[in-house]
Amino acid sequence: QVQLVESGGGSVQAGGSLRLSCAASGEAYNRPCLGWFRQAPGKEREGVGALGNRGTIYYTTSGKGRFTISQDNAKTTMYLEMERLKPEDTAVYFCAATGVDEVVGSCDTLFGDWGQGTQVTVSS
Q1: Is 115 helix (H, G, I), strand (E, B) or coil?
Q2: pLDDT tens digits, 21-74
Q3: C-alpha distances out from residue 40 to 1, 4, 55, 94, Å
Q4: Would you say the C-alpha torsion 38, 28, 70, 58 has a positive or negative sign?
């Protein structure tokens, strides 16, 4: 398993920015693929974007445009830069990890390891 800890959430005004962090530990070498998700009250969890095993970054419709995913030099922390935040971005943001399908050579789409989440609140 991989232990994931999110941080960096908080309350900001619309138009502001936040930088979320996801620190990975444990058997991280078995879970090289990381992703960001979010869940608003009363709504289903949705994907924001993901960092693949080959360094490829993917964004969903929710994450494309104003959000940027990156990783530190030590490859132990993944970041989510959020700019021009809107009230509809208010949600609990989670990071998750998954392994690599050695046959296909790409990340498994089923994320099994999750962090506790960090709250992001955007006011108008």
Answers
A1: coil
A2: 999 998 888 888 999 999 999 999 999 999 988 888 999 998 889 999 999 888
A3: 26, 20, 28, 11
A4: negative
